[in-house]
Amino acid sequence: MSSPSPSTALQRPDLGATMEQIDLDASRSGFVGLRLMPVAEVAQQSANIGKIPVAELLRDADTRRASTGGYSRSDFQFGEYFYATDDHGHEVPIDDRLKKIYRRYFDAEVVATKRARDVVLRGHEKRVCTKLVATGSFTNAAAGTIWSTHASADPVADILTRKLAVRAACGIVPNVVAMDWEAFQHARECESILDRLKYAGFQNPEASKITAAVLAQVFDVDEVIVAGGQRNSAARNETQSLTMTSLWTKTVVGVGVRAMSMDLQEPSVGRTFHWSEDGSDIGTTIETYRDETTRGDIVRARFDVDERVHYSECWQLITGVL
After folding, report:
1. Mean pLDDT across 233-240
2. 10-56+77-319 falls under which CATH superfamily?
């Protein structure tokens, strides 16, 4: 049985979730894609929305007005900047017989919804992480000493060097540092971090007590975002082999500027462009339809998005941290 047309699939807001719930579910899975590339709602599926070059944004202007004249005006020369959203989705079947067998233990529709949403958001997470750790797209430099050498590594110095470089490149002080969960574990074990906390009055600092928020204070940024998402990178086969791989490359740390407003011209590393005209919701819309050939219901999650790097000048990488 082929997939139904949109008119035969029922939207299920009762199985959907608020943005807060989606953020919580994503956080539990270690997903950070919607934080590093926040959603921007767009009215068209694809468009050239233009981009103001950094050089134009930072150019001096004579703001003094003569008594008989007007004020100076911005005359930005927009560069081309395209997006084109794709419809991403996943379906989970619910067999009628199994639903009845397990109904005392869990709601099959709710479980299927969580599975479908996880697959779609995991795909988004993979696309965002792949873009933001690409050394061919962003300026990058190796760590002075690998962070797993706890006695001599200096993550603060490594990040300060990149912060200065980002500010010199785009004129904005970085507000975020992003890293894999494993790099985070090693960063907070470094003696240079522990010593800074002791001198700052942190009572009896222990690595286990150093949260991402504490590390953000040490690095002097608004946020340290820890990516914990993983995937099974093994080929699908009858033995169901398992090879866990981090979605964010664990040897790479990102330093830069993430968007904090809805202004599409705000310089930042990137955006998730979301098109809702075809029924998509932020974080996935949930639909169900009946499939009699399998005697069951189908739960579908879908998300119409395009993840785009905005200003590459707003992001730099530290490589070889592990």
Report:
1. 70
2. phage-related protein like domain (3.90.1690.10)
